[in-house]
Amino acid sequence: MNYKTFCDQIYMTWRTSPNQFTDFSKDFDISHLPEPYYPIKKGRNPLIVLNNNPGGVLSFQEHSSILKEFPATVSYSDISDWLKDKYTNDDTIINGTAKTRISRIIQIEKIIDCDGIENVEAFFLHSNSFNKTQFLKNHLKNEITKKYAALLKNYLIDKSVLIVSAISSRNSLNLKEISNNSWLKHQAEIAGLCFDTASFHEITVKNKKITSCLVANSNKFLICTMGSNTIPKNTYSIIEQMHTKSQT
Questions:
Q1: Which residues 6+ apart lie within 8 Å of 26 measured at CB?
Q2: pLDDT given for residue 33 in this prediction
Q3: Ranges 84-98, 112-126, 127-141, 224-238: which has the least confidence
Q4: Which helix (H) or strand (E) element contains residue 231?
Q5: What is the model's pLDDT at position 86?
Q6: Contacts of 16 (CB under 8 A, 6+ apart)
Q7: Nearest C-alpha neighbor of 185 from the set 140, 145, 144
Q8: How far is Cα 186 from Cα 121, in angstroms, rounded to an integer?
Q9: Average pLDDT, the chain
Q10: CA dist., res. 109 & res. 230, Å (int)
Q11: Beta bridge partners of 226
């Protein structure tokens, strides 16, 4: 079974009964549509953006709404295209911060010669506040979680991947601190990013402290920022310089 086939299976299981995901109900919303992936921009060689999880819920994602919207014959892969329109059309429901993030991802996609953008999630259920420590402690050994992560890792093995993640740190960011962070290690493992051979690049500095950085290893990239999982505006220029050097 491949990653997207498993995502179809997750969706059909949830469609039949959200209660089949009760093991996750303490920390996640099981009454709204699982969203393991959706495209932002269609293409043959997409940049894959690895996020934490789908975030907070919206009314159109509620179980009864999805049942009304789609017959049982519709797969999650079709629904993911519907989500693309929801999140990227002119009447998009996402906020300005999310729009800015998408525009900066598009900049990066063009720089590294990718064609298209696809969002994937490290975990597929919604939560208003994703607790990384609790996830690693309570859910990492769950059989569904393990299978999902393994299939996603295999899906990403030969693809360009961008991880955008926040980190809480009192120290100036550095490769050692990032590689010792349990959640970032989990994401890097899924993405196929090897910290041992990665390069480290500062993005923003405040009061002589590196507050955001880029970690790069071949076609795998991690943008790490103190406080929130945003993409600083000058990130694309750093990646552009790296890409130019790799072409010479």
A1: 138
A2: 98
A3: 84-98
A4: none
A5: 87
A6: none
A7: 140
A8: 12
A9: 92
A10: 16
A11: 167
